[in-house]
């Protein structure tokens, strides 16, 4: 999928540029006594958000494939049109 390289690169650069300032803003907004719990919550949210986003992306891709005529069966049972969908 070479046509997806540019959007993936732009997204990766954007995520890299936003993650550090966002973390610093989070820690600057809480008191010294609450930095530990805030850090733990931030890490937990990051670890849960990644798989949740992947689930949403997979649902969108699967529904679009089925909308274009794809099927949920094995690839060996698909026609040429279903494979290109």
What can you tell me about this protein's structure?
There is one protein chain. The chain is an all-alpha fold and 85 residues long. It has one domain (2-70, 78-84). The chain is 73% helix and 0% strand. It contains three helices and no strands. It has helices at residues 5-28, 35-67, 80-84. The longest helix is centred in the middle third of the chain and has 33 residues, at 35-67. The two termini are 14 Å apart. The model has no long low-confidence stretch (mean pLDDT 87).
Care to give the gist of this entry?
73% of the residues lie in helices and 0% in strands.
| Low-confidence runs | none
Question: Please, what is the average pLDDT?
Answer: 87
Please trace the helix and strand order, writing H or E for each element: HHH
Derived from helix and strand composition plus strand pairing, the structural class reads: mainly alpha
> What sort of overall outline do the alpha carbons produce when their principal axes are compared?
elongated
Intertermini distance = 14 Å
Q: How many DSSP helices?
A: 3
Give short descriptive properties of this protein.
3 helices, about 80 residues, mainly alpha, about 0% strand, single chain
